[in-house]
Amino acid sequence: MKDKNLITVPAGFALVSDMQFMDEHPEFTKVSFPVLDGDVVNERMWVRITEGDRYNGSGIIDNEPAYAEYVKYEDTVEYATEGDSVTPVFKRKIASCEGGAL
Prior knowledge:
The chain has 102 residues and is mostly beta strands. It has one domain. The protein is 9% helix and 39% strand. The chain is globular and about 35 Å long.
């Protein structure tokens, strides 16, 4: 683990505290970012929704990535829910925090 403020959870597992936070703060969603780093296959990060809803849309990453090195804090990303999952998955980076659309 790269940071003490991270936890690992099994695939498909959702923390009750995350669901409660999203209910209290509908402007946020938790998005899964694919990662290939040893045993880590996904990193879930908070995204501030700018368009859409909790399941499909776009928003600004509100965490410092620990494993998903292709995105950064405050990058704008697109996400969507796939199949029966309730956790949206990263689709593409729309704009870089360093300025401008991609």
